[in-house]
């Protein structure tokens, strides 16, 4: 039997339910019961999505989500099952699921015009661009949680730098003439480049202040 963990959001009073047997499967509801019912539907829908993307989910075919035990996590965001070493096949399954999930996401974007990608359907909804930017920013933030700094040489920080560097190295001259408006603000390639350098330099000074406040002796730069 599996487990559905349900946790309340202290800010907006909603509830989020998670099915750990299918990583990525979660749902939000206005009440605890609503979240549980929605995540059961999400479980079946997510299995169908993965199956449609060519991922084998036979090991979950006989799983009856209606029989799962509903529990509160010991503390917010902490699920005991998460804190054990992964088997090799679990890592392979995770990577395949990542690919299947991203494939499904990209399929939703095909055929959309630039105007559709930028437009907010209602004032309270994100645009597609806003949702995608949120996904990108959150992935980087979550990836950084893997680091045990400083013994891993700041791997995520360096990986993000390589990604950014590579993005500019593959730009054609025509790409550098970009001039478009996003959510009311005008952007160009030079604007993005300048903000990247300004932002890092700004926080270089910030980190210098933090290190000095810690009383740490630094070698000359």
Can you describe this structure?
The protein is an alpha+beta fold and 221 residues long. Among the domains are: 1-83, Double Stranded RNA Binding Domain (2-Layer Sandwich), CATH 3.30.160; 171-221. The protein has helices spanning 32-52, 88-109, 114-118, 128-143, 155-169, 189-214, and strands at residues 3-8, 15-19, 25-29, 69-71, 179-182, 185-188. The strands form two sheets. Strands 3-2-1-4 form a four-stranded mixed β-sheet, covered by helices on one side. The termini are far apart.
Task: Annotate the secondary structure layout.
Blueprint: E1 3-8, E2 15-19, E3 25-29, H1 32-52, E4 69-71, H2 88-109, H3 114-118, H4 128-143, H5 155-169, E5 179-182, E6 185-188, H6 189-214
Parallel strand pairs: 1-4
Antiparallel strand pairs: 1-2, 2-3, 5-6
Q: Would you tell me which CATH topology of the domain at 1-83 applies?
A: Double Stranded RNA Binding Domain
Cα radius of gyration in angstroms: 22 Å
What is the strand arrangement across the widest sheet?
A: 3-2-1-4
Measured by DSSP, the beta-strand proportion falls in 5-15%
**Broad shape:** globular
- Element pattern in H and E: EEEHEHHHHEEH
CATH architecture assignment of the domain at 1-83: 2-Layer Sandwich
Given this structure, which CATH class of the domain at 1-83 is correct? Alpha Beta
Low-confidence stretches: none
Mean pLDDT: 89
The largest pleated sheet is described as: 4 strands, mixed
Question: Could you tell me how far the N terminus lies from the C terminus, measured between alpha carbons in angstroms?
Answer: 57 Å
Helix fraction by DSSP (H/I, runs of at least 4): 40-55%
How many DSSP H or I helices? 6
